[in-house]
Amino acid sequence: MPDYHIHTLPNGIRIVHKQVLHTKIAHSGFILDIGSRDELPNQTGIAHFWEHMAFKGTEKRKSFHILNRLESVGGELNAYTTKEKICFYSSVLDKHFDKSFELLTDITFRSVFPEREIEKERGVILEEMSMYLDTPEEAIVDEFDAVVYDTHPLGSNILGTKESVSRFEKQDFLDFLTRNLSTDSLIFCSVSNLPFEKVLKLAEKYLGDIPEIKKQRERVPFSTYIPKSVTIEKPISQAHCVLGCPAYALSDDRRIPFFMLVNLLGGPGMNSRLNLAVREKHGLVYTIDANYATYIDTGLLTIYFGTEKKQLKRTTSLVLKELKKLREVPLGSLQLHTAKEQLMGQLAMAEESNMGLMMMIGKSILDQDRVDSLNEIFGQIKNITATDLLDIANDALREDQLSFLNYVPA
């Protein structure tokens, strides 16, 4: 990717900006190196609850004023929580970037967690849980984390549990922030047509009085994995299955080759091996895909499909057959070339989204203190050999290391 600008304020907050001249929209957000894996055992779900509560009142705004501030000028304000990150972000016309920056700063640093709003939002999150539990294709993927990571914090559901969400009070949010919020572990990132000088001037205006906060928080690394097979009966009409295992961490040199292997196996292309073998050839599924998530100390491979209960065993067998092919049969030169071209094209198209680009830049700097250019990534992809992929498949796709989670109709 072309150049970006980065500046560290005296309080440790980093400002990252990429100027894109051909857009009228300013995308920006605070990306914090805090996620659900940073919760203590009695705090399960509080990171996600905080994300909700940030919109419910600050020292100078009530909920309505927060929600109306950007919506009234056609902008969008949103947030998300993952295992390792919380992000508050917005998209507005460039002329409203000042408003956006000020509001994002307000909800990120000056939330007051009104007790009345906590009670209301508790109900919203419990409804979110119910909706998610009624969607087995989503619920099973999240529950698979607990199968692989067991009692490790990465195994906890980001939403928490009904019990934990039902007991959170104002002091719990304050305690969580006190333990985890550190100004040198968060970034304000923006992508717009504005010059960096203007962004930096606003950063000094709105963030200059934020005190420096330094925390020595250490994340518990994941180290012990025992493959499991779990089957749960549910009041559903279709069987759902997720299988997978731990994979390479974010900093591992095998990450990009493995990502290419997973993309070949079950990426978004309709020509993925799993889609061709299971859907197109046998008509056993509507959806089948493979995904690879990376964390600072581990990763996770997941393969998901839904099928008729009576076809569950056969479909699983076909998936395992495709994994075996990757372990035993090296890609031919044309197959390897096609896999590389497909992945490079997908990555290039993903960078066309300025919102996605903004988040990618911020996350990359938080995790790796750098942003790899598209050309650098392409160079790594071009250097991958069929032998590399075969070795990685035999290391990471061993059948005896796979875990399984099945939802079957009761």
From TrEMBL:
Reading the lineage from the top rank, the first entry is Bacteria
Q: What is this protein called?
A: Pitrilysin family protein
As for family, the record states: Belongs to the peptidase M16 family.
The record, for PANTHER family, names: METALLOPROTEASE (PTHR11851), MITOCHONDRIAL-PROCESSING PEPTIDASE SUBUNIT ALPHA (PTHR11851:SF49)
Entry-linked InterPro entries: Metalloenz_LuxS/M16 (IPR011249), MPP/UQCRC_Complex (IPR050361), Pept_M16_N (IPR011765), Peptidase_M16_C (IPR007863)
Domain Peptidase M16 N-terminal, by residue range, is: 21-162
Location of the Peptidase M16 C-terminal domain: 168-343
Which Pfam families does this UniProt record tie to the protein? Answer: Peptidase_M16, Peptidase_M16_C
